[in-house]
Write a structure and sequence with these properties.
With 350 residues, this protein is α/β, with parallel strands linked by helices. It is built from ten helices and ten strands. The chain binds 5'-O-[(R)-(carboxyoxy)(hydroxy)phosphoryl]adenosine and zinc ion.
C-alpha cells in the first residue's frame, strides 16, 4: 500500500511517499519540501493569499521530486492523502484539490488527514519510534496541547493553551526583539549567548493545578522589559531572549511532567515545530531521565510541517482500519477542507 501525502496547510508545501504495507510502522520512501519563509519574511508573517499561490506553483514539482526519490511513478500510488485541516482555507484547498485530481486520474481513493494527527504521529518515523500509550506534548505555531494517546485515533485532550500557542509566544517575542519571522529558531539561536536568569518573566498558569497553558501575558512582559531597557536593549538582547525561552520551556516541561504523573504513563512524545527547540529537548530529556521515563521526538527535519507526517498518519489510519473517521473525501472526489478542526473530533469512543 503506497501512499502519497500532500501538506499545504500554512507556509510549507510538502509531498511524501510512504509504504504502509503490512502492519509495521509505515516506511518513508521519498519526500520533498519547500518552505515559503523567505517569501513571507518581507511582511513579518504569513500572507495567506501569497501562501496559496505559492502552493500551486510548488506542489506538482515537489510531487515529481518525491516520486523520483522513491524511484517510483505515480502509477504505483494506491491512495492519495492530503491535509484537510486545520490551517489556512485557501492553502488547504490547493493540497486537497491537487490530491483529489491526482486520485481521480489514477482511479484511487483519497484520505483527508488532520494536520495535528500528522504532527502527533511524526515521531513514529524517527530512529527511536514510540509505543502506545503515551502522553503527547504538541507544540506548534498554532497549538499547545497535552494529550493522552492510547492508539491511532484514541486521543484524549488533557490541557491546552487558553490564548497564544508556545510557537506564537516564541514568534511574537522574537518580533518584539526585532528578530523577524518566524522568530522561534532565531530567538533560540540568540538565547544560546544569553543568561536565562537575567530577567524575571512570568510563568503563567505554572501552579494552576491543571494542564492548561497561557502565553499571552509573556509577550507583554517581554515588551515591558524591552521598553524599560531602552537604549540598553541591543546589549541585553541575548539575555532577554534567553529569559523568554526559559519561561516558555519551564512551563512546557513542568506541565508535561505533571501530565505524566497524573496519567501514570512513563512515555512522552513531543511533536510540532517548537519540538525542534534545543533547550526544550535538553530539559525534557533531563526531567524524564531523572524519573526513568522515555521521551521521543520527530527527526529534527520532520518537526515543522512536512508531507511525510501526512502520508504517515494516512498509512497508520489505513492500517488501523480508520479511514472513514479521518474524513475520507469519499466517492466522486468531492472534497472540503476544515480550517478549524478540533483533534478531539477524530477521537474514537473510549
Ligand atoms: O509545527 P509548525 O511547523 O507549524 C504549525 O503547524 O504551526 O510550527 C511552527 C512553529 C513556529 O512558531 C516556529 O517559530 C516554531 O514552531 N519553531 C521553534 C523552533 N523551530 C520552529 N520554536 C522554538 N525553537 C525552535 N528551534
Ligand atoms: Zn504544523
Amino acid at each position: 500500500m503506497l501512499i502519497l501525502g500532500i501538506e499545504s496547510s500554512c507556509d510549507e508545501t510538502g509531498v511524501a511517499l510512504v509504504d504502509a504495507s503490512g502492519s509495521g510502522i509505515p516506511r518513508l520512501l521519498g519526500h520533498a519540501l519547500h518552505s515559503q519563509i523567505e517569501m513571507h519574511q518581507a511582511y513579518g508573517g504569513v500572507v495567506p493569499e501569497l501562501a496559496s499561490r505559492d502552493h500551486i506553483r510548488r506542489v506538482l514539482p515537489l510531487t515529481e521530486a518525491a516520486l523520483a526519490q522513491a524511484g517510483l511513478g505515480l502509477d504505483a500510488v494506491d491512495l492519495v492523502a492530503y491535509t484537510r485541516g486545520p490551517g489556512l482555507a485557501g492553502a488547504l484547498l490547493v493540497g486537497a484539490g491537487v490530491a483529489c485530481a491526482i486520485a481521480a486520474a489514477l482511479d484511487k481513493p483519497t484520505l483527508g488527514v488532520h494536520h495535528l494527527e500528522g504532527h502527533l504521529l511524526s515521531p513514529f518515523l524517527s530512529a527511536d519510534p514510540p509505543e502506545f500509550p503515551f502522553i503527547a506534548l504538541l507544540v506548534s505555531g498554532g497549538h499547545t496541547q497535552l494529550m493522552r494517546v492510547d492508539g491511532v485515533g484514541r486521543y484524549q485532550l488533557l490541557g491546552e493553551t487558553i490564548d497564544d500557542a508556545a510557537g506564537e509566544a516564541f514568534d511574537k517575542s522574537a518580533k518584539l526583539l526585532g528578530l523577524g519571522y518566524p522568530g522561534g529558531p532565531a530567538l533560540s539561536r540568540l538565547a544560546q549567548q544569553g543568561d536565562p536568569q537575567a530577567f524575571k518573566l512570568p510563568r503563567p498558569l505554572l501552579h494552576s493545578g491543571d494542564l492548561d497553558f497561557s502565553f499571552a501575558g509573556l509577550k507583554t512582559a517581554v515588551l515591558t522589559q524591552a521598553r524599560k531597557l531602552g537604549a540598553e536593549l541591543p546589549a541585553r538582547q541575548a539575555d532577554l531572549a534567553a529569559s523568554t525561552q526559559a519561561a516558555i520551556v519551564e512551563v512546557l516541561v513542568k506541565k508535561s511532567v505533571a501530565a505524566l504523573k497524573q496519567s501514570g504513563l512513563k512515555r512522552l512524545v513531543v511533536a510540532g515545530g517548537v519540538g525542534a527547540n534545543a533547550a526544550l529537548r535538553e530539559q525534557l530529556n533531563a526531567a524524564c531521565a531523572k524519573r526513568g521515563w522515555r521521551v521521543h521526538y520527530p527527526e529534527l527535519h520532520l518537526c515543522t510541517d512536512n508531507g511525510a507526517m501526512i502520508a504517515l498518519a494516512a498509512g497508520m489510519r489505513v492500517q488501523a482500519g480508520l479511514t472513514d473517521a479521518a474524513g475520507s473525501a469519499g466517492t466522486g472526489y468531492a472534497f472540503d477542507v476544515k480550517p478549524r478542526w478540533p483533534l478531539a473530533e477524530l477521537s474514537l469512543p473510549a
